[in-house]
């Protein structure tokens, strides 16, 4: 009889201990947030970081803006070029780009850049 009461008391104390420790652990865990390509970054004590306590936040380091900037501008002889981003499902609606003004001109959909050969 005494042993069963003692077991119950131990279970109760463990439950209380865990009930007290869980919120404290959540509130005390401060992790540094990783910024996304949109600039979203939470402060270290933000409650929304609780979702990353068991698994780290995964952010793609290969941002599309940086990748497309590595592609050199395509030199063309015409005043007007069109871009459809590639073929089939990889592409986008065809847009025409005027190259009369100096410098390179980028496609609004995919970011590919075009430059007129004699413009510089
Ligand atoms: Zn394009």
Automatic annotation (TrEMBL):
<protein>
    <recommendedName>
        <fullName>Zinc finger CHCC-type domain-containing protein</fullName>
    </recommendedName>
</protein>
<feature type="domain" description="Zinc finger CHCC-type">
    <location>
        <begin position="79"/>
        <end position="114"/>
    </location>
</feature>
<dbReference type="InterPro" id="IPR019401">
    <property type="entry name" value="Znf_CHCC"/>
</dbReference>
<dbReference type="GO" id="GO:0006120">
    <property type="term" value="P:mitochondrial electron transport, NADH to ubiquinone"/>
</dbReference>
<dbReference type="Pfam" id="PF10276">
    <property type="entry name" value="zf-CHCC"/>
</dbReference>
<dbReference type="GO" id="GO:0005739">
    <property type="term" value="C:mitochondrion"/>
</dbReference>
């Amino acid at each position: 009889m005494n042993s069963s009461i003692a077991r119950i008391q131990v279970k109760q104390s463990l439950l209380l201990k865990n009930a007290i420790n869980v919120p404290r652990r959540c509130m005390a865990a401060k992790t540094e947030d990783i910024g996304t390509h949109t600039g979203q970054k939470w402060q270290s004590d933000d409650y929304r970081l609780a979702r990353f306590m068991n698994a780290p936040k995964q952010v793609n380091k290969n941002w599309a803006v940086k990748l497309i900037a590595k592609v050199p501008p395509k030199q063309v002889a015409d005043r007007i070029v069109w871009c459809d981003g590639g073929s089939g499902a990889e592409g986008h609606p065809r847009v025409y780009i005027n190259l009369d003004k100096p410098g390179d001109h980028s496609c609004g959909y995919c970011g590919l850049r075009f430059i007129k050969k004699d413009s510089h």
